[in-house]
Amino acid sequence: MRLPSGDEGRFPVGALIAIALVGAAAYGAYWFLTDQGYLGTAAPTASPTAAVDAAGEQDSRPEWLQGTDHVLPAVVPHEDDRMPDSYVLQPWVWDLVDEDWELAVLRVGEGDQYTWFSDVQELYLISPTGEHFTVAEFDTTIDRDVVHWDPALTVAWIKRSDGSEWEQVIEFELLTQTNTYDFGDSAISTANRIEGGIANVDVVGAQPDGLELWVSYDANGAATGVFWRDGETWKPSLVQDEIRRMVVQGFSRDRGVDAWIDAEGGRAVFHGEYIDPDIGTVTDHQWVVHDLLVDSFEDDAVVATPAPGCSPLGGGHAGEFDGDRIVAVCDGTEWLLDPYELTEPEQR
Q1: How many CB atoms lie within 10 A of CB 342?
Q2: Separation of alpha carbons 135 and 305, rounded Å
Q3: What is the value of pTM for the model shown?
Q4: Are 244 and 256 contacting, i.e. CB atoms less than 8 angstroms apart?
Q5: Cα distances (Å, whole numbers) of residue 61 to 84, 93, 96, 99, 344
Q6: What 8-state DSSP symbol labels residue 132?
Q7: Each residue of 138-151: pLDDT tens digit?
Q8: Where is 25: in which H helix or E strand?
């Protein structure tokens, strides 16, 4: 059943059939009596790494199933032959899901590029050995992609893209197929709060302290802030207020500033430029050095640059570090800049 909002998914349920295969009656009875009550065609055996049980017989089930009492569920009948074979997602499958599994939106066709953007769009859970399980079917009026997901919480954050500069991100509960539009416990910058929820946020990675680092950005890709997720808890960073102040003072072309972010190293650098409106050139800079592990920052850092207009390699919030230096593009050339010791820039 597709829910009215168009964001919730539905399980595609094949027609229930009686399984009466000579030599496979035991399997047929097992599938028929599963507590789900809906089955597709018989599931073929995958090509797993074979295991040997106590009786010396090989276990031909996928490796992630070996050691359990389960067999692969039935195959879901194709609604579109261009989509991969998939299996009924029975509840016990979630008990075996861990970080080695993948969650992905797959779509085929181009639609009419006016009222819909693809022909079919579905969310799949993919096992370590490649078996696909259909989680949800989405309508095709907008593209959806998984930003991040947490298998322990059975929650995903899904981006809705229609070509606009602000892409809404929704928290999607995988078991109940329900959405939370205003997630984040107010940890996300107010610059990223749009009508109907949150937009333009992405996960950066895990820090050494175990916190999961996220970044928010404006329509130009410049960072509006960083924040953290710790399980079900969201935590704002102090630097978001500093970035907001820089924007108010004119050190931004939109709502954010350039950023270099290193989750593994627990550090970030932010850079704003003031463009004099009378002459249209950069007349001032502000550099901010942020310690992500203790959430403290210095707003008066000095960074030597070879030319004005240096920007992060890879985009406004995607800047990378090379050792203790940040990688910047200045007048079309890559340079290594030192935000800590004020040493001279080096051409990369």
Answers
A1: 10
A2: 50
A3: 0.83
A4: no
A5: 19, 14, 14, 20, 60
A6: E
A7: 999 999 999 999 99
A8: helix 25-32
